[in-house]
Amino acid sequence: MRTVIQRVSSASVTIDGTLRSAIGPGLLILLGIGHEDTKEDIDWLVRKISGLRIFNDADGVMNRSILDTGGDIIVVSQFTLMASTRKGNRPSYIGAAGHEKAVPLYEQFCSGLSDAVGKPVGTGEFGADMKVALVNDGPVTICIDTKNKE
Q1: Mean pLDDT within 71-87
Q2: Cis ω on the peptide bond leading into residue 25 (within 30° of 0)?
Q3: The domain containing residue 41 runs over which residues?
Q4: CATH number at residue 18
Q5: Which of 25, 58, 61, 106 is deepest in the core (most CB within 10 A)?
């Protein structure tokens, strides 16, 4: 799984002109799911994200997690995060899991993250043409790949 995690002042997802999810301060998470991804990837990623200390404390130091701040989260599926640009200029998405595998893992990830933070997590719609708006706070943007845990 690959993620782009953005600390936001606000974020929203709109589908066909209808607002699907909106949050104030918190995290917007773009999630790419690959063929090799499993429940173990979900569990590791949920623990990592919920404990990630990227929110400022009283001294302005990034020392607080989403659990500490009580912020909100939106998770948007994004198969393009699995792009390979190794050859040529047209990205290949062969590494992205198909709908039948990716949808259940996406839903399990959202459910696990919701359980971890103790509140519902906003979502997009898998496979939909979504308009994602955000105000990146900081800016703070973190990329995590469960196959390269650094």
Answers
A1: 95
A2: no
A3: 2-145
A4: 3.50.80.10
A5: 106
Distance CA 35, CA 38 (A): 9
Q: What percent of the chain has pLDDT over 90?
A: 95
Query: Given pLDDT bands bounded at 50, 70 and 90, which one contains residue 63?
Result: very high
Interhelix angle for 39-51 vs 99-117, to 10°? Answer: 40
Residue with token string 């589908």: 15
Residue 58: count other Cβ atoms within 10 Å of its Cβ.
7
**Residue 137 CA to chain centroid, in angstroms?**
16
Instruction: Respond yes or no: is residue 79 known to be catalytic.
Output: yes
pLDDT at 150 over 80: no
Quote the number of domains for the chain. 1
Active site residue 123: no
C-alpha distance across the termini of the chain, in Å: 13
Please confirm, yes or no, whether 146 is among the known catalytic residues: no
List the catalytic residue out of 6, 79, 109, 123. Answer: 79
What is the tally of helices (H) and strands (E) in the chain? Answer: 3, 8
Predicted local distance difference test score (pLDDT) of residue 21: 97
Of 3, 78, 123, 146, the catalytic one is 78
